[in-house]
Design brief:
The chain has 199 residues and is of the alpha+beta class. Helix content is 18%, strand content 23%. The chain has a domain of 117 residues: Dipeptide-binding Protein, Domain 1 (Dipeptide-binding Protein, domain 1, Alpha-Beta Complex). It is built from 5 helices and 8 strands, in the order E-E-E-E-H-H-E-E-H-H-H-E-E. The chain has a 4-stranded antiparallel beta sheet with strand order 3-4-6-5. A two-stranded antiparallel ribbon has the order 1-2. Strands 7-8 form a two-stranded antiparallel ribbon. A hairpin with a 2-residue loop joins strand 5 and strand 6.
């Protein structure tokens, strides 16, 4: 369910997982040094709040995930860097350009697939920062709220943490969003929010 709430820079084709495709990124390149990756963000995409999705949001989301040591954040190549350098290695050079530097050269395919995992979900920086408490990166607020850009948002939690998503439709750039079938999944036991998942 959370994969429908939080989008990633890139994802893979469910019919052929060997094929990567852009989600919030329209293009991406690997530098000749084998350590520098540049992503160009799609224009016109908005978070549920109405805030535009920018490279600054992407940088904040990945910095947040690595600093909080979210699983599988430890598998991200940039997580090997000292905490004080994370912002230098994951940075937005303008509203549409995100640059990520790894600690050492790695296979591009490995790096890209790291970004399709839990660590890759993008959050609305302004919204999350407005709900931060005691340096928690808005984590407590995100346990019962959402700040994504996907076709669904968290409408309410009911009973023992039952998720009730709400389709947002074309206004957020997603057509044909359908309500999930069957019983809504439970929120209990999730990783510190947001925990996007494959699928």
């Amino acid at each position: 369910m959370t994969g429908n709430i939080y989008e990633r820079l890139i994802t893979y084709d469910l019919k052929d997982v060997s094929k990567l495709k852009g989600e919030l990124a329209e293009s991406w390149t690997a530098g000749a040094d084998g350590k520098t990756y540049t992503f160009k963000m799609r224009k016109g995409i908005k978070f549920h709040s109405g805030n535009p999705v920018t490279a600054q949001d992407a940088a904040y989301s990945l910095q947040r995930a690595v600093i909080m040591n979210k699983t599988p954040g430890s598998s991200s190549p940039s997580s090997a860097s000292p905490r004080r350098t994370r912002k230098e290695k994951i940075r937005a050079t303008d509203d549409q350009t995100l640059v990520i530097e790894t600690g050492e050269a790695v296979a591009p395919t490995f790096f890209y697939y790291c970004l399709t995992a839990v660590i890759g979900g993008m959050v609305d920086m302004k919204t999350v920062q407005s709900h931060e408490k005691d340096g928690d990166f808005g984590n407590e607020w995100l346990k019962t709220n959402s700040a994504g850009s996907g076709p669904f948002k968290l409408d309410q939690l009911e009973g023992e943490g039952v998720l009730h998503p709400r389709a947002l439709g074309r206004v957020l750039g997603h057509e044909g969003a359908a309500a999930p079938r069957g019983r809504p999944p439970r929120a209990g036991g999730r990783d510190p929010a947001p925990p996007p998942r494959e699928g």
